[in-house]
Design goal:
Layout (H helix, E strand, L loop, with lengths): L1 H40 L8 E7 L4 E6 L3 H6 L3 E3 L10 E4 L18 E6 L2 E14 L4 H4 L6 E7 L5 E9 L3
Parallel strand pairs: 2-3, 4-7
Antiparallel strand pairs: 1-2, 1-5, 3-4, 5-6, 6-8, 7-8
């Protein structure tokens, strides 16, 4: 019985240490992200992988959009361009984690909500037209032919096999 108590204490201590380290790492990622956003807004960023910035207007959440290895970018709590460029004449696919500092607010988004893209110092306004959930192995929404170029935001849900897709249309605002 005594051995079980010691093992329980060791496990509890290990979980506590892991939790502290995890939150420390997440805080560090958030600080880096905020500093990069400030530099981008001041036009002083030197990272050539930064393509632009996205803002979810309803919650005033901003994230830089980067090109490169999608998994690496997402792991840094940034937004990844799935097409590696931002051309408003084509459908733009952006992916990010469903955490509060990135796309966590998309789950509360509604049709009509606005999104802003800042690309090479030009501002583009989008309005959410539809919101869908799809299985992670369903690529048809990403391969579909659209009547006009759209902004498609992709994030995870609380179910590992389901993704949230938000479709937005460029407006004249």
């Amino acid at each position: 019985m005594r051995g079980i108590k010691y093992i329980g204490c060791i496990i509890l201590i290990g979980v506590g240490i892991y939790t502290v380290l995890f939150f420390r790492e997440e805080t560090k990622k958030q600080e880096i992200k905020e500093k990069e956003i400030q530099l981008y807004e001041k036009k002083k960023i030197e990272d050539t992988d930064v393509l632009g910035m996205i803002e979810i207007v309803k919650t005033n959440k901003k994230s830089l959009i980067k090109k490169g290895n999608v998994n690496t970018i997402i792991a840094q709590n940034q937004v990844a361009s799935m097409t590696q460029n931002l051309d408003i004449k084509q459908t733009i696919f952006l992916a990010g984690h469903s955490i509060p500092s990135v796309f966590g607010d998309l789950h509360q988004s509604q049709i009509g909500d606005r999104i802003i893209l800042l690309i090479q110092e030009k501002v583009y306004h989008y309005t959410i037209e539809s919101i869908r959930t799809v299985r992670t192995d369903d690529f048809t929404p990403l391969e579909a032919e659209y009547k006009y170029p759209q902004l498609v935001l992709i994030t995870c849900t609380n179910r590992s096999s389901i993704r949230l897709l938000v479709f937005a249309k460029l407006t004249d605002d």
